[in-house]
Design a protein that fits this description.
Elements: H1 2-11, H2 17-36, H3 41-50, H4 55-79, H5 85-108, H6 111-130, H7 133-140, H8 150-165, H9 170-181, H10 186-210, H11 216-235, H12 242-265
């Protein structure tokens, strides 16, 4: 079954109705989940690799849709009054500086090293996805002030290195950082995530484009779906479905991780 799916994805023309439907449909799902939960970019990697892209191209190609989706999301959160642009900018700048280093590493490292690294990191991100953030802070009595300090800039710089290397899970890390260390609630932390991603993504995008690692036709089509899913998730409150979505994403993440690691061992 998986072989048949991979064969379909790798042989079907990009501009066919079938492939357009797949790219926009999956892009919408990923955009939706990334907005309300996170980590769904791993699904993008799985799709693009099944289409025949090496992981460095898949990693780079996701970035245009990410930029388009989170730009629209930021406008929606700002319009609703949840986005503190000043604070988000202070978070986004160190993330962007770190992203420059991370993207340079991802563009130059051998694909097998990238696959092993992502295969190891994605399950860690999956665990973070399932943590109840509110209970976690109550248990460990974590408090934070929205005032930035040197060590907070350093934390977001390190997050940026990861985000430049791979987008999968970076939004979750920015949310955790904003929630745990800036004293924000989940809604405002999510809003910070949206604009911080918009600030850092162009840097990674330019680096990957410079190295010729973006499949532009796929990136442009996929971004349409990302925007649709992101708008839907930003406009609709779906508390009842969050746990199910997290579990589904976790399954995909674990499968993706196992594939990437096994590929190097077999």
């Amino acid at each position: 079954m998986f072989e048949q799916i991979a064969n379909f994805l790798s042989t079907t023309p990009i501009w066919s109705v079938e492939m357009l439907s797949v790219l926009i449909g999956v892009g919408a799902f990923v955009g939706f989940v990334n907005t309300i939960a996170g980590l769904a970019t791993s699904i993008s990697y799985a799709l693009f690799m099944a289409m025949g892209m090496p992981i460095n191209i898949a990693n780079a190609t996701t970035r245009f849709g990410v930029l388009a989706q989170f730009s629209v999301n930021s406008l929606i959160f700002k319009k609703k009054g949840y986005l503190d642009v000043s604070l988000a900018t202070k978070v986004g700048i160190p993330v962007a500086l770190g992203a420059f280093l991370g993207a340079e590493l991802a563009s130059k490292l051998p694909t097998n090293i990238i696959e092993i690294t992502m295969g190891c990191m994605l399950p860690v991100m999956g665990v973070l996805l399932l943590i109840d953030k509110k209970k976690f802070t109550e248990k460990y009595k974590l408090t934070g002030s929205s005032k930035m300090s040197v060590w907070k800039y350093l934390i977001f710089f390190i997050i940026g290195i990861y985000g430049g290397f791979t987008h999968a899970g970076v939004g979750l890390l920015i949310m955790f950082g904003s929630f745990l260390f800036l004293g924000l609630d989940l809604v405002h932390s999510n809003a910070i995530k949206q604009l911080a991603v918009v600030i850092y993504t162009p840097i990674a995008l330019v680096i990957f484009a410079y190295h010729g690692q973006i499949n532009w036709p796929v990136a442009l089509i996929y971004s349409i779906g990302n925007i649709i899913g992101g708008v839907a998730a930003s406009m609709v409150a779906i508390r009842w479905g969050e746990k199910i979505i997290k579990i589904c994403v976790l399954i995909v993440v674990l499968a993706m991780s196992a594939y990437l690691i096994a590929k190097q061992l077999i």
